[in-house]
Protein backbone atom coordinates (compact mmCIF):
# COMPACT_ATOMS: atom_id res chain seq x y z
CA UNK A 1 0.00 0.00 0.00
CA UNK A 2 1.25 3.47 -0.85
CA UNK A 3 1.08 6.41 1.53
CA UNK A 4 -0.37 8.81 -1.05
CA UNK A 5 -4.13 9.11 -0.54
CA UNK A 6 -5.98 7.47 -3.43
CA UNK A 7 -8.36 10.42 -3.68
CA UNK A 8 -5.44 12.87 -4.02
CA UNK A 9 -3.79 10.76 -6.74
CA UNK A 10 -7.15 10.56 -8.51
CA UNK A 11 -7.49 14.34 -8.50
CA UNK A 12 -3.88 14.96 -9.56
CA UNK A 13 -3.85 12.40 -12.38
CA UNK A 14 -6.14 14.06 -14.96
CA UNK A 15 -3.98 17.19 -14.87
CA UNK A 16 -0.55 15.61 -14.38
CA UNK A 17 -0.70 12.64 -16.77
CA UNK A 18 -1.03 14.78 -19.92
CA UNK A 19 1.95 16.86 -18.75
CA UNK A 20 3.97 13.69 -18.17
CA UNK A 21 3.16 12.41 -21.65
CA UNK A 22 4.07 15.78 -23.13
CA UNK A 23 7.42 15.71 -21.30
CA UNK A 24 8.14 12.25 -22.72
CA UNK A 25 7.27 13.46 -26.21
CA UNK A 26 9.19 16.75 -26.17
CA UNK A 27 12.28 15.23 -24.62
CA UNK A 28 12.40 12.53 -27.26
CA UNK A 29 11.59 14.90 -30.14
CA UNK A 30 13.72 17.91 -29.17
CA UNK A 31 15.79 16.67 -26.19
CA UNK A 32 14.13 19.47 -24.23
CA UNK A 33 11.63 19.80 -21.40
CA UNK A 34 9.91 23.15 -21.74
CA UNK A 35 9.71 25.65 -18.90
CA UNK A 36 5.98 26.04 -19.57
CA UNK A 37 5.43 22.37 -18.81
CA UNK A 38 7.44 22.60 -15.60
CA UNK A 39 5.51 25.70 -14.51
CA UNK A 40 2.20 24.01 -15.38
CA UNK A 41 3.15 21.00 -13.24
CA UNK A 42 4.07 23.27 -10.34
CA UNK A 43 0.78 25.16 -10.72
CA UNK A 44 -1.21 21.92 -10.65
CA UNK A 45 0.34 21.08 -7.30
CA UNK A 46 -0.05 24.64 -6.02
CA UNK A 47 -3.81 24.54 -6.61
CA UNK A 48 -4.69 20.85 -6.18
CA UNK A 49 -2.30 20.30 -3.29
CA UNK A 50 -3.78 23.25 -1.43
CA UNK A 51 -7.28 21.85 -1.90
CA UNK A 52 -6.44 18.21 -1.14
CA UNK A 53 -3.81 18.23 1.60
CA UNK A 54 -3.76 19.52 5.17
CA UNK A 55 -2.06 22.94 5.20
CA UNK A 56 0.99 21.76 7.15
CA UNK A 57 1.56 18.82 4.81
CA UNK A 58 1.01 21.05 1.78
CA UNK A 59 3.62 23.54 2.95
CA UNK A 60 6.17 20.82 3.76
CA UNK A 61 5.90 19.57 0.19
CA UNK A 62 7.65 22.73 -0.96
CA UNK A 63 10.67 21.53 1.01
CA UNK A 64 10.64 18.47 -1.29
CA UNK A 65 10.70 20.84 -4.27
CA UNK A 66 13.64 22.80 -2.85
CA UNK A 67 15.72 19.75 -1.94
CA UNK A 68 15.21 18.12 -5.34
CA UNK A 69 15.93 21.40 -7.12
CA UNK A 70 19.24 21.87 -5.28
CA UNK A 71 20.21 18.24 -5.98
CA UNK A 72 19.17 18.65 -9.63
CA UNK A 73 21.23 21.83 -10.03
CA UNK A 74 24.25 20.01 -8.61
CA UNK A 75 23.72 17.05 -10.94
CA UNK A 76 23.26 19.42 -13.89
CA UNK A 77 26.47 21.24 -13.00
CA UNK A 78 28.22 17.86 -12.95
CA UNK A 79 26.86 17.05 -16.40
CA UNK A 80 24.77 14.12 -15.16
CA UNK A 81 21.41 15.44 -16.36
CA UNK A 82 19.90 18.38 -18.18
CA UNK A 83 18.49 21.51 -16.62
CA UNK A 84 14.97 20.66 -17.81
CA UNK A 85 15.25 17.26 -16.14
CA UNK A 86 16.28 18.92 -12.87
CA UNK A 87 13.42 21.42 -13.04
CA UNK A 88 10.84 18.75 -13.91
CA UNK A 89 12.00 16.51 -11.07
CA UNK A 90 11.75 19.45 -8.66
CA UNK A 91 8.23 20.33 -9.84
CA UNK A 92 7.23 16.65 -9.53
CA UNK A 93 8.65 16.23 -6.02
CA UNK A 94 5.71 17.80 -4.11
CA UNK A 95 3.36 15.15 -5.51
CA UNK A 96 5.33 12.39 -3.78
CA UNK A 97 4.62 11.44 -0.19
CA UNK A 98 7.85 11.13 1.78
CA UNK A 99 6.88 7.67 3.04
CA UNK A 100 6.69 6.52 -0.61
CA UNK A 101 10.22 7.70 -1.44
CA UNK A 102 11.81 4.25 -1.24
CA UNK A 103 9.12 2.81 -3.52
CA UNK A 104 9.47 5.76 -5.89
CA UNK A 105 13.23 5.28 -6.19
CA UNK A 106 12.74 1.60 -7.09
CA UNK A 107 10.00 2.56 -9.56
CA UNK A 108 12.28 5.18 -11.12
CA UNK A 109 15.18 2.71 -11.41
CA UNK A 110 12.98 0.14 -13.14
CA UNK A 111 11.39 2.78 -15.37
CA UNK A 112 14.76 4.29 -16.26
CA UNK A 113 16.11 0.90 -17.28
CA UNK A 114 12.99 0.10 -19.33
CA UNK A 115 12.95 3.54 -20.98
CA UNK A 116 16.66 3.38 -21.83
CA UNK A 117 16.48 -0.10 -23.33
CA UNK A 118 13.29 0.69 -25.25
CA UNK A 119 14.70 3.97 -26.60
CA UNK A 120 17.97 2.38 -27.68
CA UNK A 121 16.20 -0.57 -29.33
CA UNK A 122 13.80 1.71 -31.18
CA UNK A 123 16.69 3.90 -32.27
CA UNK A 124 18.51 0.90 -33.72
CA UNK A 125 15.53 -0.56 -35.60
CA UNK A 126 13.17 0.53 -38.39
CA UNK A 127 10.82 1.88 -35.69
CA UNK A 128 12.99 4.97 -35.90
CA UNK A 129 11.40 5.77 -39.25
CA UNK A 130 8.05 6.44 -37.53
CA UNK A 131 9.54 9.68 -36.20
CA UNK A 132 12.65 10.33 -38.30
CA UNK A 133 13.14 13.92 -37.16
CA UNK A 134 13.40 13.21 -33.41
CA UNK A 135 16.59 14.67 -32.05
CA UNK A 136 17.01 11.88 -29.47
CA UNK A 137 17.77 9.37 -32.23
CA UNK A 138 20.98 11.21 -33.11
CA UNK A 139 21.99 12.49 -29.68
CA UNK A 140 24.94 10.14 -29.31
CA UNK A 141 25.23 8.89 -25.75
CA UNK A 142 22.72 11.43 -24.39
CA UNK A 143 19.40 9.99 -23.27
CA UNK A 144 16.02 11.79 -23.03
CA UNK A 145 15.65 11.46 -19.25
CA UNK A 146 12.19 13.07 -19.45
CA UNK A 147 10.98 9.75 -20.82
CA UNK A 148 11.85 8.08 -17.52
CA UNK A 149 10.95 11.03 -15.27
CA UNK A 150 7.55 11.65 -16.81
CA UNK A 151 6.81 7.95 -16.91
CA UNK A 152 7.74 7.51 -13.27
CA UNK A 153 5.48 10.31 -12.03
CA UNK A 154 2.62 9.03 -14.19
CA UNK A 155 3.04 5.47 -12.92
CA UNK A 156 3.30 6.63 -9.32
CA UNK A 157 0.01 8.50 -9.55
CA UNK A 158 -1.78 5.65 -11.32
CA UNK A 159 -0.49 3.19 -8.70
CA UNK A 160 -1.49 5.71 -6.03
CA UNK A 161 -5.05 5.69 -7.35
CA UNK A 162 -5.13 1.89 -7.09
CA UNK A 163 -3.01 1.18 -4.00
CA UNK A 164 -3.07 4.49 -2.14
CA UNK A 165 -4.50 4.97 1.32
UniProtKB/TrEMBL annotation:
Superkingdom of origin organism: Bacteria
A Pfam family per the record: Peptidase_A24
Prepilin type IV endopeptidase peptidase domain ranges (all copies): 16-117
GO MF entries: aspartic-type endopeptidase activity
InterPro entries per record: Prepilin_IV_endopep_pep (IPR000045)
Cellular-component GO terms for this entry: membrane
Record Gene3D superfamilies: 1.20.120.1220
Coiled-coil parts of chain: none
Protein name, per record: Prepilin peptidase CpaA
Organism: Salipiger marinus
Lineage: Bacteria, Pseudomonadati, Pseudomonadota, Alphaproteobacteria, Rhodobacterales
Amino acid sequence: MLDIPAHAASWYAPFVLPLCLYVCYTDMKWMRITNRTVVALALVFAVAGYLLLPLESYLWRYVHLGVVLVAGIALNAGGVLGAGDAKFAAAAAPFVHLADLRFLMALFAANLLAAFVTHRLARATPLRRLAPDWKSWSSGTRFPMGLALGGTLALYLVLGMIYGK
